[in-house]
Design goal:
The chain has 320 residues and is mainly α. Helices cover 60% and strands 3% of the residues. The longest helix has 22 residues, at 30-51. The structure holds adenosine-5'-diphosphate and magnesium ion (MG). Magnesium ion binds next to loops.
């Protein structure tokens, strides 16, 4: 029986149930997997970089990553950060695929990818050689001389899981441990969020995104963990795990009529344009779910919409 030592019980049980439903739905359709992967890549990159101070918006991040465009008025560094982060995600996806063990080298490689090509960060994939302070934190991270040993302890903790924690707890605590050590000059937060997801993804969880809008809360929770109270941070991570499980489950609803389809696809099942459906989705008239920039709906929702709003003629046009 899988149990949790830290996470709120009700939340934990809900998560297990949702994870179970996701596992039962495997293998997921290739089209859905691809779509979710693309959306998560942008969502995770945008949020993780925004927390770090990158000013690219969600849409700008998408344009840089998917279309290789440059955004006027934004620094080269911000563009690099977007591309680098996606490369780091792709790197860990490969590790997950190949079921590779996490080593010190793994973390150094992730960090190196994150700060690639960025001026002013001389210590790519290397530990810092100076003292560092975390704004707002109540402690000073360990001195450079201790970093190697602390990191090896962390890797050991990650691989051996001595407290027999559930993977969500292990992932959250490993995240906190890494930012507490703060082994790098910069990029500690992004590396920690990637390590956290590497652990989660290895156990079949969807990537979990800490949202930029939650930044203050995230920092407060980390601060509490610094004081030895890690439960609020672990619960915070668990709630985000649940959020992304929900997103995945919604996207893969197994009943055919409940399977998410794009609005473009939905136009084939009714007599409305994509623009009109999008308007109705935004107005809440058509049940739809926004993933990244795009709205998704279901055949069932289109049917329900037609029943309520369409004229007799339009209703007749419902195409299976
Ligand atoms: N009180 C705190 N205790 C531990 N870590 C913290 C605290 N406050 C912030 N952090 C972490 O430090 C990160 C910022 O460090 P930094 O090296 O600049 O990483 P990045 O450049 O990836 O944001 C934050 O994203 C957060 O994860
Ligand atoms: Mg930073």
């Amino acid at each position: 029986m899988v149990s949790s030592k830290i996470i709120d019980r009700e939340l934990f049980e809900r998560i297990l149930e949702k994870k179970n439903s996701l596992d039962k739905a495997r293998p997921l359709s290739a089209e859905i997997v691809q779509k979710l992967r693309q959306e998560m890549e942008i969502e995770w990159t945008y949020n993780s970089n925004a927390i770090e101070g990158n000013s690219l918006s969600y849409e700008e991040t998408r344009r840089v990553v998917e279309r290789g465009l440059t955004i006027g008025g934004k620094s080269l560094r911000e563009h690099f950060e977007a591309i680098n982060h996606v490369n780091a995600i792709r790197f860990i996806e490969k590790l997950v695929e190949k079921k590779q063990k996490i080593t010190e080298q793994t973390i150094l490689e992730i960090h190196s990818l994150i700060v690639k090509g960025i001026d002013g960060v001389r210590e790519k994939g290397q530990y810092r050689s100076g003292t560092v302070f975390i704004g707002g934190a109540v402690f000073t991270p360990p001195p450079p001389i201790e970093l190697k040993a602390r990191m090896l302890d962390l890797i050991d903790f990650v691989n051996k899981n001595p407290d027999k924690l559930h993977v969500i707890e292990l992932a959250a605590i490993s995240h906190h441990k890494l930012v507490w050590i703060h082994p790098f000059v910069d990029g500690n937060g992004r590396t920690a969020r990637i390590l956290m997801n590497l652990l989660l993804m290895k156990k079949g969880f969807p990537p979990t995104v800490i949202l930029n809008v939650d930044r203050q809360k995230y920092y407060r929770r980390l601060k509490e963990a610094d004081r030895g109270k890690s439960k609020p941070f672990v619960d915070f991570v668990a709630r985000n795990v649940e959020r992304n499980l929900d997103l995945y489950l919604k996207a893969i609803k197994t009943g055919k009529d409940e399977q998410y389809i794009s609005l473009q696809e939905a136009t084939r099942h009714c007599d409305y344009s994509q623009e009109y459906l999008s308007l109705q989705a935004r107005n809440g008239k058509l049940e739809a779910h926004k993933l990244g920039r795009n709205w998704f709906t279901t055949k069932k929702a289109i049917q329900a919409y037609l029943k309520k709003h369409a004229t007799k003629n339009q209703k007749l046009k419902f195409i299976q």
